[in-house]
Amino acid sequence: MSIVLRDATAFDADSVQALLFDHGPNPWNWLPPEGVARTIQQLVAGLAGAVLAEDGSVLVGAVLYRHADPYPSLRPDDISPPQCSYIVEAVVHRDYAGQGIGARLLNSVCQKLAAQGQAWVVADRHEENGPSASMMRKAGLQQLGVYDDPARRPHGSGRTAVCGRRL
Q1: pLDDT the model gives residue 27
Q2: For 83, phi and psi rounded to 5 degrees?
Q3: Which among 114, 112, 116, 120 has a CA at the least distance from the CA of 141?
Q4: How far, in Å, CA of 59 to CA of 5, rounded?
Q5: What is the SS3 assignment for 73?
Q6: In terms of DSSP H, where are the helices of the chain?
Q7: Cβ contacts of residue 131 below 8 Å, gap of 6+?
Q8: Contacts with 62 (C-beta within 8 Å, 6 or more apart), sequence order
Q9: Residue 72 class from Cβ within 10 Å (0-12 exposed, 13-18 middle, 19+ buried)?
Q10: CA-based angle 163:50:147, to the nearest 5?
C-alpha cells in the first residue's frame, strides 16, 4: 500500500461526498445531508479546502477544513479570529481504518494551514469516539472542553469534545 496525499480540487467534490456518505456514518458521527452538501459547495467555490489520501486511484481518506472560529471561548487570547481554522470533516475508508491515514491527513492539513498564516485549528467529535480521539491526539490536537450536544450526538453520552492546537 502506497498512500499518496494531495490537495483536493473542485473536480474531487463528488468523490469526497461519496466517501463521506459511504464511510463516514457511524453512531458517533453527525453527517446531516444539508451540512455535507454545504461543505462540498464550499469546497467547489474555494471557501473550504481538503487534503485527500489515495491508494492508486482509490480515494481512501479526506479531511475538509475552512477558515472559521466556531469556538471563540476556547481560542488562546493572543490569536485573532482571522487566524483560526476548523476541521469540518475527517473520514477514512473503513477498509483502511486504523493505519494512521487520518492522522497523516490531519497533520498535512495543519502544515498547510500554518503555511497560510493560520495560528489555531479546532475540531470536534463525539466525546466517546475513540478513533477520532486517537487521530486528533496523534496530530497534536488536545482536548479543550466538552459540552452537552444531544441534537448532534444522540448516542452514548450525547456530548461533543472540542480539540485544538496552535499551528
Answers
A1: 87
A2: -95, 10
A3: 120
A4: 10
A5: helix
A6: 13-23, 33-45, 101-115, 130-138
A7: 97, 98, 102
A8: 8, 16, 19, 20, 50, 51, 52, 53, 89, 90, 91, 105
A9: exposed
A10: 20
Secondary structure (3-state) at 110: helix
Residue 92 has pLDDT above 90, yes or no: yes
- Look up residue 128 and give its three cell numbers: 466517546
Please give the pLDDT value at position 30. 87
What's the pLDDT tens digit per position in 28-40? 888 999 999 999 9
Amino acid at 78: D
Contacts of 135 (CB under 8 A, 6+ apart): 90, 102, 103, 106
Helix (H, G, I), strand (E, B) or coil at 82: helix
What does the pLDDT look like over 129-164, one tens digit per residue? 999 999 999 999 999 999 999 999 999 999 999 999
Cell of 51: 487534503
